[in-house]
Amino acid sequence: MITLMELIFGNDDRPTDQRPLQEIGVKYNLHQEQLHRVMELYLQAMLKGLQDNVSYGGLDALMDALGRNKSEEFLKYPHQIIESKAVDNGNYILGHILKEKDVSRDLATSVSRRTGIDQDTLEIVLPITATFMMGRLGLYLDDIEDSQKRDTLLDILQIEEGTSLREMIVQKQKQLYGE
């Protein structure tokens, strides 16, 4: 099982294309260690938001969004990850994950305090991180058989088998689709 962090940053068994991260770092004058720390903090919040959304019946919406995922394009052409279209795309994603703009601002403020990085920079890096995350999720799931995508996504979101949350989601799927 791969975690969201491993999916984003890669690991020894599954290296990832680092060019988008390099583009972000250069554009916003962040060393790779700084960028990793910022993205880790953001991804923790996004993971929680995704878990909450899925627990309230949002698994299908997330699967649909990943199926229509335009975020992948920003990773296929790494220079595009820092363009305004990627920021707009990320803000759209954040609207679904974090729900309110104030939550995004508060998150950037918190990460700024924890890292010492300028909040204005972090407010731009946040939606880019959302675009990056959805792009990586989409690319990863593209290589998974359709019948395994839901379980794989639940695994990545750390909604483990045997938990009441996973059982609730599986039960809801059975009710909706007679699976």
Radius of gyration, whole Å? 16 Å
Q: What general outline do the C-alpha atoms trace?
A: globular
Sheet/helix structural class? mainly alpha
Helix fraction by DSSP (H/I, runs of at least 4): over 70%
| Beta-strand proportion | under 5%
Specify the number of helices.
9
Pfam families: DUF937
InterPro entries: DUF937
Could you give the topology of this structure?
Layout: H1 4-9, H2 19-27, H3 32-67, H4 71-76, H5 84-97, H6 101-115, H7 119-142, H8 149-156, H9 164-177
Q: Notable features of this structure?
A:
179 residues, mainly alpha, 0% strand
Give a verbal description of the structure.
The protein has 179 residues and is mainly alpha-helical. It has one domain (16-146). It is 74% helix and 0% strand. The protein has 9 helices and no strands. Helix 3 crosses helix 7 (119-142), helix 5 (84-97) crosses helix 7 and helix 6 crosses helix 7 (119-142). It is globular, with a radius of gyration of 16 Å. It starts with a helix and ends with a helix.
Describe the structure concisely.
With 179 residues, this protein is mostly helical.
